[in-house]
Amino acid sequence: MSGVVHRTPLLTSTTLDARCGARVCLKAEPFQRGGSFKFRGAYNRLSLLDAGERARGVVAYSSGNHGGAVALAASLLGIHAVVVVPATGSPAKLAAIEGYGAEIRRYDPATERREEVAVELAQERSLTMIRPFDDYDIMAGQGTLGVELAEQAGDLGLVLVPIGGGGLAAGVSTAVKALLPGAAVIGVEPAGADDTRRSLRAGRRVALDTVDTIADGLRASQPGERTFEVNRRLLDDVVTVDDAAIVEAMRFCFTRLKVVVEPSGAVPLAALLTGAVRADGRPTAVVLSGGNVDPADFAALLARG
Questions:
Q1: Residue of 278, 1, 302 whose CA lies nearest to 137
Q2: pTM, entire model
Q3: Which long-range contacts does 80-86 make (Cβ < 8 Å, 24+ apart)?
Q4: Do 291 and 259 touch, CB atoms closer than 8 A?
Q5: Is 38 tagged catalytic?
Q6: What's the pLDDT at 2?
Q7: Which of 27, 36, 38, 62 is an active site residue?
Q8: Catalytic residue status for 289
Q9: Tell me, what DSSP letter sits at residue 45?
Q10: Under 8 Å between Cβ of 161 and 173
């Protein structure tokens, strides 16, 4: 993956350090190819396909970032990709998927389930399914972010990472615990999509009846089977933040760092700013996981906040 995946920068803010009482660095995945960490896992998974699988093509389902990442990785590797997307999805994210050359298959969220649509396509056309998180090769690709953190930040006492399906948290926690064994890794979820937090407390995977959050990339209703096993072994805790706190974290990134971060990407910073997680003097890293948000939506959220 060297030379293909961007080694994204660490950002700092003296204002943030003062507010948190610790040295804080932010891993800026909005500067990753495709605008989010998802490219890491997608490229790793597709690069491991054999010649027959590459020739037949792949299918993915995604509300945005995973679909864009698969489309981009497929275009770089010369693989045809089909991406199953909601008809009501973000216009900016759908335009990016099409711009990378993928074939779009829209579905109606009210009457269809995206995974079932993708499975049907895979069977009909002999396509390889590229799942968004519950895949060890995807997790390994996301783990390169944790490797970079250890190399760039040096000694860390605390790492905050967002959790949707759990692939990023699993990959990052695996890398950080191996390279920086003294660091605590804490996952952060939206309060309206806290499936991993509830599952960890129950000791088993719990499915939510409803999911309600502005963080569209973290709307998983149940943790992945494989990701959950990794995360319950390696994560030190999972906390939640509400949508208002997410918007304020987005505002902080825009006004102080001059960086646009999508709602899902701002969730870990929201935990630090609200005190849901306290640095307590520990050198801290926060993963800003992506920056793919429609300009109109971004402006509306900040105005509403």
A1: 1
A2: 0.94
A3: 81/57, 82/57, 82/58, 82/121, 82/125, 82/127, 83/59, 84/59, 84/60, 84/114, 84/117, 84/118, 84/121, 85/61, 85/114, 86/114
A4: yes
A5: yes
A6: 76
A7: 38
A8: yes
A9: H
A10: yes
